[in-house]
């Protein structure tokens, strides 16, 4: 994702944080081939991290995670988000890019946390969202993780001291946006 951002928005300063071996691979193999101009112009930094032992770089405008939180059960997911919260600035946002599991039972539109499919379709579009449910089974079996509903993401954020801002519907997936609570 950072490669796409580096190419599309050449004024962005990007920091790639991941496990040490992934950072070395990105720095020495991927980025020199795919986006050498970002390296030459010092627009991308590579920082190894174990987010259970360290906090991310402090004061970033956006902390973006794609397909990370679903790898972990609630205690670990809260620990990851809590580590981010500790280094956030008042302007910072956390974006979690994942499948958002949508319940198959309809609720009144006024109570819905997301836009439901029109009747007579199931509110989660039925078979059209099978990939999300299959992904849930895969992360459960292989990683002991889980896909989450929006309510579960809101709860994770609250437990980590973050305020849910909004859900960005990006088609098959969603972006859950958090910020610091008012007065933090």
UniProtKB/TrEMBL annotation:
Instruction: Please report the stretch or stretches of sequence annotated as the O-methyltransferase C-terminal domain.
Output: 6-162
Judging by the UniProt lineage, the source's domain of life is Eukaryota
Which key words tag this protein in UniProt? Methyltransferase, S-adenosyl-L-methionine, Transferase
Q: Name one GO molecular function term.
A: O-methyltransferase activity
Q: Does the keyword Amino-acid biosynthesis apply?
A: no
Give the signal peptide range.
none
One GO BP annotation of this record: methylation
* Matching SUPFAM superfamilies: S-adenosyl-L-methionine-dependent methyltransferases (SSF53335)
Q: What is this protein called?
A: O-methyltransferase C-terminal domain-containing protein
Species of the source: Panaeolus cyanescens
């Amino acid at each position: 994702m950072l490669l796409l951002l580096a190419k599309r928005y050449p004024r962005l300063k990007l920091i790639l944080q991941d496990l040490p071996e992934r950072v070395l691979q990105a720095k020495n193999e991927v980025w020199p081939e795919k986006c050498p101009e970002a390296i030459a112009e010092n627009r991308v930094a590579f920082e190894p991290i174990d987010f259970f032992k360290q906090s991310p770089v402090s004061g970033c405008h956006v902390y973006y995670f794609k397909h990370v939180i679903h790898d972990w059960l609630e205690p670990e997911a809260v620990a990851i988000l809590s580590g981010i919260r500790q280094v956030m600035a008042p302007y910072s946002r956390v974006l979690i890019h994942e499948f958002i599991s949508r319940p198959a039972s309809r609720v009144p539109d006024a109570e819905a946390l997301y836009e439901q499919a029109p009747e007579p379709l199931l509110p989660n579009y039925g078979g059209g969202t099978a990939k999300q449910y299959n992904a849930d089974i895969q992360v459960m079996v292989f990683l002991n993780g889980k896909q989450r509903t929006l309510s579960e993401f809101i709860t994770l954020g609250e437990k980590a001291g973050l305020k849910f801002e909004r859900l960005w519907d990006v088609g098959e997936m969603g972006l859950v946006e958090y910020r610091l609570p008012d007065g933090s």
